[in-house]
Each structure stands twice: as C-alpha cells, then as structure tokens.
Amino acid sequence: MPWLILVLAGVLETAWAVGLKYTDGFSRPGPTALTVLALIGSVWLLALSVRTLPLGTAYAVWTGIGAVGTVIVGILRFGESASWFRLACVGLIVVGLVGLRFAPGSR
C-alpha cells in the first residue's frame, strides 16, 4: 500500500507542476487554488508513504514520477520537444524508478 500511496503522490506532483502553467504567476484564483490543493495532497501522501518506505527512496521516486509526468504532459499538451534524446533521458529516469522499487531494502 505505501507504494500505491507514493505513486498517487507523484501523480499529484505532476498535477501541481502542470498547474503552475495555468496560474499565470498565481494571478488566476481558480487554477491557483487547484494547484495549491494538488501540492498539499502530494506532500501529504508523500509523508504517509515515508512512514513505511525509506525516505531517500520515496523522495527520489516522488520527484521522478513528477518529472516524468510533467515531461509527458509538456509533450502532449504544450507541444514541447519529443526528440529521441529527450525521450531516452526520460526513459533513464523510468529505469531508475523501477530500479529503486526493486532494490534491496525498498520494502
């Protein structure tokens, strides 16, 4: 269960990172409120996951999911570059995340 909570925290991290694009410097109340709620939820779920998971592993996976998710949304929603090199680098992050999940001591 802590891994599922951590994945949900990472998805919310992606949501708040993308939400920053829509807040227009925190000048738009609706998008700002949703972004702040996603941020609070993401950190809260991360805090729940580190009750059981090692802190370093949980934090790295949380930021990795957020980074990969944000890159994917950037490509699909905002027309950012999907060059092979960029995708290969994101793939390396995914490999690292999977490695952390199955590393000894990751529970």
Notable characteristics:
single chain, flat, mainly alpha, 107 residues
Describe the structure.
The protein is an all-alpha fold and 107 residues long. It has one domain (2-102). It has helices spanning 2-23, 29-49, 55-78, 84-102.
Structure described in brief:
This protein is mostly helical. It contains 4 helices and no strands. The protein has one domain (2-102).
Layout of strands and helices, then pairs:
Blueprint: H1 2-23, H2 29-49, H3 55-78, H4 84-102
Helix pairs in contact: 1-2, 1-3, 3-4
Number of strand segments: 0
Number of helical stretches of at least 4 residues: 4
Multimeric state? single chain
Number of domains: 1
What is the percent of helical residues? over 70%
How does the major sheet shape up?
Answer: none
Q: Could you report the average pLDDT, rounded to the nearest whole number?
A: 95
| Beta-strand content | under 5%
Q: Segments where pLDDT lies below 50 for 5+ residues?
A: none
Globally, the shape reads flat
Going by helix content, strand content and strand pairing, the class is mainly alpha
State Rg: 15 Å
What separation lies between the terminal Cα atoms?
11 Å
* Helix-strand pattern: HHHH
